[in-house]
Amino acid sequence: MIKIGMMIGDRYEILEKIGTGGMSDVYKAKCHKLNRYVAIKVLKQEFSENANFVSKFRIEAQAAAGLMHPNIVNVYDVGEENGIYYIVMELVEGITLKKYIEKKARLSYKEAVSIAIQVSMGIEAAHNNHIIHRDIKPQNIIISKDGKVKVTDFGIAKAATSNTITSNVMGSVHYTSPEQARGGYSDEKSDIYSLGITMFEMLTGRVPFNGETTVAIAIKHIQEEMPSPKEFVPEIPSSVASIVLKCCQKSPDRRYQNMAELIADLKQSLINPEEDFVVNTDPDMEGGTRMISDEDMAQIKRKVPYQGSREYEEPDHDETMRLRSDTEAMYENEEDGEDEDNYDYDPKMERVTTILAIVAGVVICIILIVLAVKIFGGKNGGSSDSDAGPIITTEETDATEVEKVSMPYVTGMKVEDAKSTLTSLGILTEVTYEESDTVAEGIVINTDVSVGAQIDKGSKVTLKASAGTQGVEVPNVVNLTFDEANTQLVSKGFLVNKTENYSDTVESGRVISQTPSEGNKAPKGSVITVTVSLGKEDTKIRVPNLIGLSEQDGTVEAIEAGLTVGSVTYIYSDEVGEGMICYQSYSHGSYVDQGTSIDIKVSQGAQKVTYKCNVSIAAPTTSEAPGYVSGMEVSIKLVTDDNNVLLDTKTSTFPVATNFNGMTASGGTLTMTYQVTSEPTTTTNPDTGEQVTVPGTTEDRSFTRRVEFVKE
Fold first, then answer.
1. Residue 193's domain is classified under what CATH number?
2. pTM of the full predicted structure?
3. I need a labelling partner for 440 at 20 to 30 A (CA). Which of 6, 458, 632, 689 fits?
């Protein structure tokens, strides 16, 4: 059991509990070895006792520990102590994207795109390491106090299995891909779908699919057409809406195929927001609304089990991190808590609900029939005491029930449109204004009544609308280096678009001009375009590479470049083949005046080198030839390094003169062989007592000498 002040792993001191979730508790701790603060996620006891779950938990966490990226909450360590399984992670001080969206109602498209780019870069780093997140959602994205966006819980989703599903499943199912909802194969494009849903929520302040149960929401992901965010916030640029819709295609093949493609389009949307550059895949491919099969429905329901069932089923999949779905992990309780209501799928409750719905329908029909009889029957039947027309009662008693209306979604509308919408429902309005750097002037930021709330007709709703912004004064960054200019502009809350051009007056790397110019005011998040100098435009001719070309081809290349060929000489070259240019008087890539004469040298191939041998072979010495006696016959054999035999003879007279030439090898080996005979020995025959002489034995002995030749 974890206690405040205890040490884990002989280095992590538990300081305080900072969060809890469905499968783990999170603590702030201090690493005494590296003297830094960390977050430690400790697996809850009910999961620590399951060996299969723990095994997968450790494998996935260790794989995630290999990810190091500024847009990922890094995993530092994975460990176990006395049955306590834990993950040590980077401690990020900040707020989840979910809370940030709730705080701001919705984000401007520039802010949403900027956040999406950072999230995409973190996910791209994971995908490049063959790790799929499987649970991308605002709750798993953290915005640090310094504005850095980080994705957390990489690798944790796959470790969770059916026994980790609690009642808190509403949060994840809003962001799950159709293939995950069906429990099928998932890959990098499943993360792209979930990120698309997250972008939709950032832009509109709501999720595209809602329902009373997880099954209902999952079915909508599979069956219903994805709405455009422009339906809820019309001023969203077309390119941004197209990016979201491409991410959220039903068919994975119609989505972005990788994060690099998505990042490129997101960056382009900041520069040309209304340009139609988003490339859609084959429109004939399936991707829209489709009917859900009974088999799919059964599969979805199996993915959202009844809460009372705690049986653990081991899914049939590899233990690797790659490309395999474990859909149950989509519905794991988030570590930062869910704000959604909790629902469970219970087969018994579904039957009860169906029966109640039928009964309710019958009751409603009876009520409608009774009302119809009273209204229409009252006009034609019965007697009247007076010839007067029908009496209309205008007096309202205390028992009269006030009509209720549902609060519509007006955030992001123009004030007049929002007031018109509410007035048509019988709702009174009051408008207050406040400055906003992110919401355009005259647009509703939020309301004091939540969307969907039942309110009395005639009641008043306060609309908080944007009064616009005076904007931030654009600083002067002309003549600064690009890094200096970028730092200044980003610190003011601007985005920076860099272009380049030649300049005769501004040195390379410094800013020539900026748009908007100094002194103008612009909202935070606006794009400031800075033009950076490439230096003076050089009109000289760039020398082409002639090395390795034939003399003829090199001459043509030089002339086409605006040069002339000067002297041509022919030399031996060990590196360039015969007939090819091996030297040019001006190096490749240098700049010269037009018409400059360039000298070349053409290879004659490698120069042939021959050697001669005029050594005098001395007699063997006692150190190299034990047993050799002057005058003995010696076999002499001289072989070159390329196995040519120069000398093979016998002699007893030394020295031996040699005179060889024309060899291609630079040396050879001299082998000298001689015979040594041992002295005879005398022994006594034990049977006869006679002396017997045993002749000596003869053996061949040899040694070698290294002989170096001389160049001719």
1. 1.10.510.10
2. 0.44
3. 458
Rounded to the nearest 5 degrees, what angle is found at the Cα of 159, between the Cα atoms of 330 and 168? 35
284 and 325 housed in the same domain? yes
Residue 51: exposed, middle, or buried by beta-carbon count in 10 A (0-12, 13-18, 19+)?
exposed
Cα separation of 318 and 635, whole Å?
72
| CATH, residue 483 | 3.30.10.20
Digit-coded pLDDT (tens) for 291-338: 445 555 555 555 443 333 333 233 333 332 322 333 333 333 333 334
**Is 457 in the same domain as 554?**
no
- Angle at which helix 259-271 crosses helix 188-204, to 10 degrees, equals 30
Q: How confident is the model at residue 511 (pLDDT cuts 50, 70, 90)?
A: very high
Q: pLDDT tens digit string along 562-611?
A: 899 999 999 988 888 899 999 999 999 888 888 899 999 999 988 888 99
Residues whose CB is less than 8 angstroms from the CB of residue 290 and which lie 6 or more positions away in sequence, other chains included: 222, 223, 250
Q: Does residue 520 fall inside a structural domain?
A: yes
Q: Which domain holds residue 509?
A: 472-533
Look at the block and give the residue holding tokens 């291609």: 664
Our CA dihedral for 5, 11, 16, 19, rounded to 10 degrees, sits at: -140
> From CA 97, how far away is CA 660, in angstroms rounded?
88
Place of tokens 């970028």: 486
Instruction: Kindly state whether residues 446 and 589 are assigned to the same domain.
Output: no
| Domain match, 297 and 278 both | yes
Q: For residue 309, is it within any domain?
A: yes
Mean of pLDDT over the chain: 80
Is 135 a catalytic site residue?
yes
Q: Which of 10, 25, 77, 135 is catalytic?
A: 135
Look at the chain and report how many structural domains it folds into: 6
CA distance 264 to 257: 12
Beta-sheet strands, E only, within 472-610: 472-473, 495-501, 511-515, 521-522, 527-533, 541-542, 564-571, 581-584, 591-592, 597-603
pLDDT at 183 over 70: yes
